[in-house]
Amino acid sequence: MKPGRLKQILLLTDGCSNHGEDPVVVAALARNQGVTVNVIGVLDDRQNSKPQGLDEVESIAEAGGGVSQIVYQKSLSQTVQMVTRQAMTQTIQGVVNKELQEILGKDQTIEELPPEQRGEVVEVVDELGESCDLEVLVLVDTSASMHHKLPTVKEALFDLSLSLNARSGSNQFSVFAFPDPKKTITKMVNWTPELGELHGIFSKLNSGGYTPTGPALKEALYAFAEKPLSDRMKDGEDPYEETGF
Amino acid sequence: MKKRAFDITPGSCLAGKWNGHTYTIIKKLGSGACGIVFLCRSSQGDTYALKVGEDSSRMMMEVNMLKKFSKVQGAKLGPSFVDVDDWVSPDRKTHPFYVMEYIDGVPLKHFLKGKSKEWVGIIAIQLLSDLENLHNEGYVFGDLKTDNLLIGNSRVRWIDVGGVTATGRAIKEYTEFYDRGYWGRGSRKAEPTYDLFAVTMILLEMSYPKRFEKGNHPEKTLEAKLSASPLLKPYRKIIQQCWMGKIQDAAEMKNKFSSILLKRSGKRSSSRMQKRLTTQESDNVELAALSLMAGVVFGVSIFSFWI
Ligand SMILES: Nc1ncnc2c1ncn2[C@@H]1O[C@H](COP(=O)(O)OP(=O)(O)O)[C@@H](O)[C@H]1O
């Protein structure tokens, strides 16, 4: 099997969307376009109960075929890389299951294979996770309540790049922030193979009292489509593109 | 684990769907991020550890690793593999499980209580010689941490091989405190030196059981904690060398620890012998610990003549 190219949006937020279209619907749309949506809800370290509205986090990720997690700030780094990894494995497994079904018939999944063969398939999935190319668009909610969490977010993104760049497959990252009064989302970091020291990002922020998560996700999806042409040409030969990754 | 709809109590019997072997549950040994581990008895009457989980892929990864290392000659790397199967619970859900060697031991944390300081070095040497074997096989342990270590028969054994990674790949699973990436001391590529760093953190944790966070200056924090630890004073230089990337492999680091321990054993004074990690020990236990330790130090010296 040839390693493919996985596309993910990673949404970091701490609240409930209250503006524009339903983020769950947009996430489902993204999934259809071959983009997985992962969501991390970031709690204050002092917060001791799950605030209302964060259930949305789970629904968005579910619709987007991704992984969700609600965490305290201090575990953000480890969670960001874990969620990204899990989602990669999940997507690859989905593709492998599809192929299994083509060979072995409907309803055949990895779980239903005898342990011996399951072990071999898992090895293949692991290999693909190591060698596939990955594009992660990070979408950060920078509304007022997130402001003091942004240094931790920066650190977590640096850490994510550290984890993923240990793989043999290539990586592309970009970072967007929302809300932005004019364009809904603002590009913070253009597509880059490494999220090094993120100096100065998140310094100029517009924070209104609204959280347009749905529209922001939609813009992020467009941003994926607007990737430089050279990248997209390579994608043309990618077998996974056709299977609707 | 998210949902645990099934109920496995002592005395219940798990039958494998594919291989047909049955296991009687004796008691729960512990639970982890991806499963529960039970002590069990096979129909032949042998005692094993049995892990039931939900995430079948992750369970299979662990099985793949256990199988690999059951084949490694000589040294035992991790519990040996026995069986893998699915169990269908009364509510007709399928749960993957696997069976492995039961390691009858105490967690490292408890083991060290009341032991003489030399045990710090001895544990390091034991760990490093296991790592040496693992690295020679082309693997890196990855998620090496105190929680994954049991001491049985005065020998450290590791459990949970879920993080074992082929050399050169990316580390998939780690715990921040033991991760050199977290401390700004290197990449998350599976290299022998990744495990060596984790060993130094296991040693630091012996001094600081509650661990500590990295703060704004991770490198300074590490240095300060190391300098402030009397327990690690003899090994300070080795640990610093490891952090600076001056130690390339487990064998080299092991030899450094051996030579420190041997040097000390020659001119040990009685007052030094009295320094315990904790002091509430009965004379009997102390005597036993002393003779045991003498044996181990002796064993270590024989060992180092071998190499
Ligand atoms: N082979 C074994 N022998 C004895 N005890 C074991 C064995 N494997 C696991 N355990 C016990 O079960 C606990 C959880 O197992 P572990 O494999 O670490 O779970 P997880 O990988 O899900 O975190 C361990 O802390 C240990 O106490």
CATH topology group of the largest domain in chain B: Transferase(Phosphotransferase), domain 1
How far the N terminus sits from the C terminus of chain B, by CA atoms, comes to 45 Å
CATH architecture of the largest domain in chain B: Orthogonal Bundle
CATH superfamily descriptor of chain A:
von Willebrand factor, type A domain
Question: Could you give the order of strands across the largest sheet of chain A?
Answer: 3-2-1-4-5-6
Extract low-pLDDT stretches of chain B.
268-275, 278-307
What is the SS-derived class of chain A? alpha/beta
Total beta strand runs of chain B: 11
What's the total count of β strands of chain A? Answer: 6
Report the order of strands and helices of chain B: EEEEHEEEHHEEEEHHHHHH
Q: Hey, which two chains have the biggest interface?
A: A-B, 25 and 25 residues
Overall 3D geometry of chain B? elongated
Distance between the termini of chain A: 15 Å
Domain VWFA (chain A): 1-92
Protein name (chain A): Ca-activated chloride channel family protein
InterPro entries (chain A): VWF_A, vWFA_dom_sf
InterPro entries (chain B): Kinase-like_dom_sf (IPR011009), Prot_kinase_dom (IPR000719), Ser_Thr_kinase_AGC (IPR050236)
